[in-house]
Amino acid sequence: MSEAKQILETLINDFSIDKFGRFFREKSRQFKSLEENYTRYNDDNFKSGLKIGEINFDDEDSLTICAFEVKKELSERAGKKAQYQKAKDILKSSENQKYSAGIFIFYDSIGNFRFSLVYPEAIGTRRQWNNFRRFTYFVNKEFTNKTFIKQIGDKEFLKLDDIKYAFSITAVTDIFYDEFFTIYDSVVKKTKEFNQIKDDEKVRDFVLLFTIRLVFLGFIQKKKWIGESEKFIQEFFSEYRIKFFGDDNFYLRWLTPLFFEALNFPQGRKVAYGDNDFAIETENKLQMAPYLNGGLFKPKIGYDDNGWIIPDKEIEYFLSFLFAHSFTIEENSFEDEDLQLNPEFLGIIFERLVNKVDGAVYTPRTEVNLMCRLSLVKWLQKNLKNPISSTNLYELFFRESEKVEDQKQGSFSQKEALEILEKLQNLSICDPAVGSGAFLVGMMQVLDDTEQVLKVKYNLNGKSTFDRKKEIIKNSLYGVEVKEWAVWICQLRLWLSLFVDAPDNLKNSLLPILPSLDFKVRQGDSLIQRIGSKTFPVEGHLTIQSNSIKRKITELKKFKIDYFENDKSNLLEEYDNPYRRELVIFEEILDLEIKEKEDQLRILKNIKPIKTISLFGDIDDVDKQGSLGLDSDKISNLENEVTQLKDQRRILKNGGKPLVWSIEFAEVFAEKNGFDIIIGNPPYVRQESISDPTGKIKDKKEYKRFLEEMVKMDFSEDFSKKTKINAQSDLYTYFYIRGLRLLNQGGIHTFICSNSWLDVGYGVWLQDFLLKRCPVDLIIDNHARRSFEAADVNTIISIIHAPQKKIDENYITKFVAFKKPFEESVFTENLVAIENSKEVTSNDTLRVYPITNKKLKETGTEFEDNELMKSGKYVGDKWGGKYLRAPDIFFTILKKGKDKLVKLGDIADVRFGIKTGANDFFYLNEEKIKLWGIEKEFLQPVIISPRECKEIFISPNKLSNKILICAKTKEELNGTNVLKYINYGEKEKIIIKQGSNKGNTIVGYQNLESVKGRKYWWNLDNLVHPYCSYPMINNIRLIFIKNNGILNDANLVSVLPKNESIEFLLNLNSTYNMMNLELLGMANLGEGAIKLNPAYIKGALILDPKYLDFGHIDTSKFINRAVKSIFEECGIDPKSDIPIEEQEPKPLSDRAELDKIIFDALDLTEVERKDVYRSVCRLVWNRISKAKNI
């Protein structure tokens, strides 16, 4: 153990300010003990102010260390605001503005202390002392203080960033998660063995439910609501341990009565479960435990009714781990974070534990807060009866970059404030992929904050925070999640966020304290809903012509409100509940469909012609069918369908009910015809991994067919039955469609998701649909910080309005690229500037590109007549590259080169390289060629990988592989070695490397799907030798290669110009064109690479070669030397302390000579030429550094 760590542990048990001086001397050689009396900062709350010393780091950062004694006993919540303000006042004072940060120690007379790092956030390039951040460890000798000792005791203090990491919530999360996962895995394994459970998923969920309940109790006991103790669970287990440990009865005979009786019934009721042998004092504590209810402590069918237990040793193991960490019942804010177990922290942990497989990733608080607030502003702009200025709305929901005391909060009349409140109190908000509930909790907090601000500012009557939050959950928040465990976690988050503000006297309530959330957060597949053989539409019940079903749905709405409040007075029978009532509706729907099909069967069998009304309101004139006579195929199909429907009806009674939006959320669809706001972070599941998350549809292809059917059902006018949805579409594209369908007419759709649909081929159909039907308000990117560190994906935030019949062609979409992290840039003044922008606007913080719907359509459409722009087909556009990632100089070049730029695809054939279908057979190295003695006439040099190409000019001598080129028949090859090789290939065992049969083994290359369509499978016919080629995937070395008659693999894109010339080749290798290609590529690969397939490269706007003449310069050196990284080529150091935009480019001399000809033709100024170098380097650096989370 280090000396510093020993001092820290001693200090906790025997507090002394003097010991901190010794601690900091051990932690940092740069620490200077400069004790200074700070009594001038003493006030009514603080005394004994002292500056302990300072640390001056090598990189010019510095840190001050101060201590104050608080006059009242310190607790986790008491005095936090005053302490934070004291730290800010000291750092803002003129004498201390030299410091980059401060560590502040606030302690009380008994040795509790708060150990905080506080520092100002820079706005722009300088500190303005208005926006601070605080990270805090609360230390109490009664706690284990495990995380504090590990982080502060073990981490380096060599530079300020090291100290920030020691106070980092990410670092603390990693520590907790690593240990939690190990313990959780062990408990699952032992529980499975002990109970002989075969279902792995079921036992994992069972243990997860156990951990969720204990975690919740950890927060409950933090308020001393059980037995007036913060350590009730530890004491409860300790009592059992002394008497019965090893009998393995703690779960069943002690925890079960605690969960399902003590916490699930009003106070005063004696725990009656079994012979428990509780001490009398413990029994009294259980009898007076708070009546929580809410659902968490009700037995869960399928988990709590199996007789499963968790062995004593595993419970001890888990409790020892869990309560080694301290709990706090407060949610963190961006500005102020306690480094303890809080509700959000546990949301992150649980999602990391089980979500990775399902593609879900926890959305950071900053993004959640931004999306919630923007959604509310946009919704109010659209739905207020009396329009209010956007500036006032942004001031209400966002902060200015000014001092806290100078925040504006909007200016409204009393009437306006009342209308805003009324609108916000009746919102319906849904997250269709709710996960652990980050967006629902975020919305609850924003709505509560806003309501409080308005009520205080305008002297309106208000409820308590607890009652306000409860109303918000009841009236406004909804979610759907396919995994049951995720529903539990989401409910836990909502309960905890509500519980934080529960008044202390509520613990003695004889009514349930927590609301029932079973019908606020539903389990089910948000995308696919089937009843019987039919896929059920979102608003299916609205077209059902059954008055009985309509009446039952109306009753269900009222019943759910009572159920939320735990009001059971309307129960007709003990088993009556909303689930049962929903089941009755589903059964009646199935009965109607069965009757419809049985009536059709009668007609087909010529029993009795009748007219029927289908389940979905269609009138079928079945007299015509009757006249057709017996149709055995139809009869057989109908009989099968009826059998399936009856089977489905039986399955319903065993918990097989699907999620149907209009019934599950009848109160929303009956009143509003949809939700006001759809918000969320849909799962990141690539097309090849899409499968039924419920496990009911085993075939992936069948599930994807249902997804396509869902799109066509949701928007049948836009997607006919013959429409093909791009099969490569990732799962989130379907969430876009379903989310938009769930909105009412005035709704707002806000997602954070992969940016790939902005640029890739499978995004075309979604772009086309949005341009026709859904006004896109904002597409937001952040160039400075990646939102999801744990996922290999780059994201954007989109805000889209509900579908309309037709969009005004002059409607303006705004593409916003933030150049600084959201924390440093999302201020009212910037958002108002975005709102008011009518033309491209750029500054140090952001760039906004406004563009009309008409222009977006035109730039993505290929017209038969480009001049008349008629008879066009939408083929997609690079929204991400052109409007988000493009630097300002790109638009300058477009303007100056308007008549000189041409699409590469207009002057050259751009295509994929060779796709052999069997690379292992067709590509041969020298060893393989010698082994088989293959004749030279059948071999040609080939470029397989871009790594082989160091120079522009490629020599065959530098290539290590040949490609087999053979157009002869076997008869013509008789007696050759190549025939022996072909015959060998037809007997070789081959493992299939891709496609649906990946991993399977077949015999013979001729049986591969990729080659079997050829007349002679070994014949690569119709080969064309490209003039030049470009790597399909690049990182930092960007190069067009001159092939010199050499073929290239599909890893490179082949280019065949109509007119071959050195001007064409050098033009493609210009720095301007490299910038161009950076904007066109697919940059969402997540690991820094960029992909450019032929379709992307075709769209490159290059300088027409006819304007170029390189005859007067010597280009031989340039095309024969090794091409370096783009940073070396341009003479820019991206790692320098000097920002790229402020560096003086020093391009390599031959590159500068080449670029000068391009720049001259474009008439660029000297400053603009430098901006080209800076911009391409910035684009590449943003791409690779964002992926590395720099």
Give an overview in words.
Its EC number is 2.1.1.72. Pfam families: Eco57I, M_Eco57I_C. It is built from 42 helices and 37 strands. The protein is of the alpha+beta class and 1190 residues long. It has six domains: 165 residues, no CATH class; 153 residues; 299 residues, Vaccinia Virus protein VP39 (Rossmann fold, 3-Layer(aba) Sandwich); 129 residues, no CATH class; 195 residues, no CATH class; 91 residues, no CATH class. α7 runs parallel beside α18, α25 runs parallel beside α26 and α31 crosses α42.
Question: What is the compact description of this entry?
Answer:
Residues 878-990 form the Type II methyltransferase M.Eco57I C-terminal domain. The protein is of the alpha+beta class and 1190 residues long. It has 42 helices and 37 strands.
Features:
1190 residues; Rossmann fold; alpha+beta; single chain; seven-stranded mixed beta sheet; 6 domains; ten-stranded mixed beta sheet
* Low-pLDDT segments, ≥5 res: 612-620, 622-630
CATH architecture of the largest domain: 3-Layer(aba) Sandwich
End-to-end CA span: 32 Å
Strand order of the largest sheet: 10-9-8-15-16-18-17-19-21-20
CATH class of the largest domain: Alpha Beta
Number of strands: 37
Q: If you consult CATH, what is the topology of the largest domain?
A: Rossmann fold
CATH-defined superfamily of the largest domain: Vaccinia Virus protein VP39
Mean pLDDT: 88
Q: How many structural domains?
A: 6
Q: What class, by secondary structure content?
A: alpha+beta
Number of helical regions: 42
